[in-house]
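WARN retry 2 of 3 for item q-0093 after timeout on previous attempt; input resubmitted unchanged.
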Amino acid sequence: GAVATQTYQTPAGKTRDITLADGTHIRLNAASKITVRLGRDARRVEMADAEAVFDVAHDARRPFLIEVGDRQVRVVGTEFNLRHRDDQVDLPVRRGVVEVRPADAPGAAPTRVTVGQELTHTEGQAVQILKVADPIQSFAWTNGQLIYKDQPLSEVAADLSRRFSVPVRTADARTAALRFSGVLVTDNEPDVLRRLAAYAPVRVERTADAIILHHR
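OK item q-0093 returned
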């Protein structure tokens, strides 16, 4: 019979726990959208602009396939975080093995990503990079934390925009390029912005519809 397609979506500021009919658990981060089809021969997920932790139920007869940008991720049974934001794909694995191929070449030899590794890829480029992962950093969002190690402030602002329901922007290119290292506990917006201003040389401005970060 026909296979039902289900779309799960979260607004900014809200995460969601999903259990699929096959027993797979998905923790969907804020401002994310995925589409799921559980077919007889395969379980398929299409990942739009999204981040999620997948704990995939083992079923050797039905591979778990995720389309993410121009990559296809094939899972047997594992736990990993998958992030797809602004043409960037990040995939750190916490348990098991995941195979990644170009989406348009399902027969291509896969890149295998295993425990303690992270695959990063920019859409449109042929290469993908495999490195040692820091699972604490990758999975921190599930515990209400954001951990940064020398990352541009533009990335921090984008993450905070998804975590809160108000857009967070950098005032200019100089501010966007500031490098930031630190742990932000995302319990509430005023506290997070206070911590950010304490850790980084920024001043926080609130307008009617946004939060602007200025280099100070």
